[in-house]
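G., the chain you wanted modeled:
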Amino acid sequence: MARKIIDCRLFPSEKKCTLAISGTEAEVLDAAVHHATTVHGHANSPELREQIRSMLKDEPQTKAAAV
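Predicted structure as tokens:
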């Protein structure tokens, strides 16, 4: 399964946020929307979700840890 990543360091912010989120597209999108609304003060809207979705990048593949 392809993992996605979003990194706040790549986007201008007054807070100088350094958070990076990775996981499935749905996980990253939900967490990033929550972060954008609670930390950065954005309104939760369909437009915000689509904007964040467009900023997701494929995470470089790494070998998963054995459980």
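Residues 3 and 62 are 10 Å apart (CA to CA).

Shout if anything looks off.
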